């Protein structure tokens, strides 16, 4: 009977040499990184949501009091509405415009590579710089949009983009759409280029119109990548902070406060760490719903592979 250490060494060697073992070893550094910089802050935030912690004071356990108080807080519910409205409208617009742009760039166009590089600029520019640019574009006195419309005789006075509640909502959505379209477009373009051209050619020979080829061939094969891209788009939009905070800081009269910005305002400037953490934790069910959307979207791969 071989010694136990030699047997353990043999088991470990087989594990390392196996495909699953090698994959586990490659994933281990990333798992440790996520454990330290994601799991711990998330766990701490959940814990703080059940305490009355303030800046400079650890706080005591108060159970669900923060969440019960939020249920009666009109500003919190306004931030929930703003977040859902902002995420839904911006995500739909980014998907529609991004898909149209991806289909356009997938064609044989002159200087196609140059256009693809230019389209990426809004995505690679730092968010704060983009927000500052839009802050000037939407300025109540010096807005270039108002100036052009006044020159054309369409309006008689500058538009108060960021001072009116609904104007402010649509303005921050426009800024988010401008910034997010490149990610959606380039990702969908990559998906389009994986679809064999022979499928569209065969459908065209069978008499399918361009719309039929798109809905019956292109769109079904693009569904998995759409699910992944839109999941990330929804997550990025739902948790948006920098763009809103630089442009409006949640104003006017809390009209553009998202759950992320309200959580920051209550926790850091307001000093109520427990309340801010509770607002952040309240975002988790919405984020899980987006992840489930991606999961069920990826199940369409079974259809592509011929599974039942």
Automatic annotation (TrEMBL):
Q: Which residues cross the membrane?
A: 21-40, 84-105, 117-138, 219-238, 277-298
- Keyword Lipoprotein listed? The answer is no
Q: What is this protein called?
A: Sugar ABC transporter permease
Matches recorded under Pfam families: BPD_transp_1 (PF00528)
GO BP terms, alphabetized: transmembrane transport
The cellular location(s) given in this protein's UniProt record come to: Cell membrane
The UniProt entry's sequence similarity note says: Belongs to the binding-protein-dependent transport system permease family.
Q: Does the keyword Transmembrane apply?
A: yes
- Which taxonomic lineage does the organism of this UniProt entry have? Bacteria, Pseudomonadati, Pseudomonadota, Alphaproteobacteria, Rhodobacterales
Q: Which UniProt keywords apply?
A: Cell membrane, Membrane, Transmembrane, Transmembrane helix, Transport
